[in-house]
């Protein structure tokens, strides 16, 4: 069984699902960090958004194309809230991949923001199973993709600024 019948989950998780659609919650977090976090916030936001994009490419553009897995059966969802499930492959969870990538890439630059982002990240993972959109293994694979994306982004050195006067010499 993927979903479970719980009054608190039926109240809490649908807004989480809406916030996670099209990565809205992560874009909002990135804007908040960039606007209010100074240089550290901009660095964290850039790392998070970049890792999120890499995770979406890896999960939705590569893994879902290679692994065609059906979504969990509707009869496994006791709360009957299965009408909004996607038609794409269940494996891996792209929502979870994006959430984990954003959070894991943000945390090294700004640990406090990473800790705050960990709460909606965990709720997204729980919601994907509760809604019947994914098996727990899909969410675990999505988390692995997200961690991989964050590690890739963190491993690439940031672009270096050219010394003053060097930019004009490079153009000519």
UniProtKB/TrEMBL annotation:
Check the record and name the InterPro entries matching this protein.
PAP2/HPO (IPR000326), PAP2/HPO_sf (IPR036938)
Keyword Cell membrane attributed: yes
**Subcellular localization, as worded in the UniProt entry:** Cell membrane
UniProt membrane topology term = Multi-pass membrane protein
Q: Which domain of life is it from?
A: Bacteria
Annotated region (Disordered), positions in chain: 69-93
Q: Which UniProt keywords apply?
A: Cell membrane, Hydrolase, Membrane, Transmembrane, Transmembrane helix
* Keyword Transmembrane applies: yes
Q: Where is the Phosphatidic acid phosphatase type 2/haloperoxidase domain?
A: 47-154
A Pfam family found in this protein is PAP2
User: What SUPFAM superfamilies is this protein classified in?
Assistant: Acid phosphatase/Vanadium-dependent haloperoxidase (SSF48317)
Instruction: Please report the name of this protein according to its UniProt entry.
Output: Phosphatase PAP2 family protein
Species of provenance: Streptomyces omiyaensis
